[in-house]
Design a protein that fits this description.
It is built from twelve helices and 17 strands. By secondary structure, it is an alpha/beta fold.
Length: 383
């Protein structure tokens, strides 16, 4: 049986939930009260808790950037870069990211009496750490846009490591290992890739598989309906997902050179996109993969190959998109390797010899059809 103080605390917290929703200006006062508690988290647990709260909590105040109150109510308040508030079971929970010139730390704040350990255990069960999460940009209340975790990425077991995918894998590994060097040297820790080539050759799936391999969150960003303000907002809020790879698919459907062909009047501008990639809005720990089926649509200021004779080369604009990797139709050796994932080697070679100049997904489909035919033949023989 709980004590009288527990009972009073519960009644106060229930009332507090209603007050918070109506009076967001009370947040700072709450955070400086004697009833406010904070626990320091590592970055992975912070990301796990954020993903969980996006599912079960009610966001009552979106993350505020560089909120600064050095003195309030006679108490010194530590500056922080981002803070977001959620109501969980009618209790206030805050996720706080504090940044100073020498350190970066993550915290969860709550009112005394809340079972924070129970909340963390629930979050760990739903969103295990050290797993690549799939994040998508979604519209929230009052027209705001932000990232929402859709769960962990599931590893694909049967994957052909194409030359393009191998090159991307090596470059991604080098970028991941350069974090300490970039930090100590004062260099931006960012990377960008343009993945181009005929459709159906594994550009997007390569990013998904390599995000899983390197333990990166995968943030899928659809630019089609975003305004300048929305693009800037969603980009600035990506700090909660880092380190991550942002995937922008088929940019040629939206941009033609520097022109937004999807929504010329209200859509985002080319300059805003460039500012997100390497301007004032650029964020460390973010790698970007942009795919296109039409190389002619890509402006050199964004980053495109200097010529089309090399399938893996530096771009025209390193720092935005650093490398350009062409995903070609698989050659005979590649088709055999794809076939061997589903068929006996002799049968894979036979099928590879019969079908030339087909995309990866087209040849995969042929292999599946052959595999199904073999299975049906085996069942018929058995009956």
């Amino acid at each position: 049986m709980g004590t009288l103080s527990d009972f009073v605390s519960k009644i106060a917290s229930d009332a507090l939930g209603r007050i918070i929703a109506a009076a967001p200006g009370q947040f700072v006062k709450i955070m400086t009260s004697a009833a406010w508690c904070e626990v320091t988290l590592d970055s992975s647990l912070f990301a796990v808790l954020l993903a969980y709260l996006n599912h079960v909590g009610t966001e009552v105040w979106a993350p505020a950037t560089k909120y600064d109150h050095s003195l309030l109510g006679g108490r010194t308040v530590i500056k922080y870069s981002d803070v977001g508030f959620f109501l969980v079971e009618k209790r206030l929970v805050a996720l706080i990211r504090r940044e100073s010139p020498k350190s970066l730390s993550y915290h969860v704040g709550y009112l005394r009496g809340f079972d924070i350990e129970k909340l963390l255990n629930k979050a760990l069960n739903v969103c295990p750490p050290n797993k690549s999460g799939l994040w998508v940009a979604v519209s929230k209340k009052e027209g705001e846009i932000g990232w929402q975790c859709q769960g962990t990425l599931q590893e694909m077991r049967k994957v052909w490591l194409s030359p393009a995918m191998s090159a991307l894998d090596n470059d991604m590994a080098q970028w991941m290992s350069s974090r300490k060097f970039c930090t100590e040297a004062g260099l931006p820790w960012r990377r960008g890739w343009l993945l181009w080539g005929a459709p159906g050759n594994g550009k997007s799936s390569a990013i998904r598989n390599l995000a899983i391999k390197h333990g990166l969150n995968l943030c899928v960003l659809s630019l089609a309906s975003l305004t300048d303000r929305e693009l800037s907002t969603v980009w600035s809020s990506i700090t909660h997902c880092t380190p991550c790879v942002v995937l922008v698919e088929d940019i040629d459907d939206i941009l033609r050179g520097r022109q937004n062909i999807r929504d010329p009047q209200k859509g985002f501008t080319f300059s805003t996109l460039l500012n997100c990639l390497d301007g004032a809005a650029a964020i460390d720990g973010v790698s970007v993969a942009i795919t296109t089926n039409d190389l002619e649509a890509i402006d050199s200021a964004l980053g495109r190959p200097r010529d089309d004779t090399h399938w893996n080369q530096l771009s025209t604009r390193p720092g935005r998109l650093d490398r350009c990797i062409r995903f070609d139709n698989p050659d005979f050796v590649g088709r055999v390797e794809i076939g061997k994932l589903l068929l006996p080697e002799a049968e894979a070679r036979d099928l590879a010899a019969q079908h030339d100049d087909v995309s990866l997904v087209q040849f995969q489909s042929l292999c599946r059809d052959r595999m199904f035919a073999r299975m049906q033949g085996g069942l018929a023989a058995a009956s």
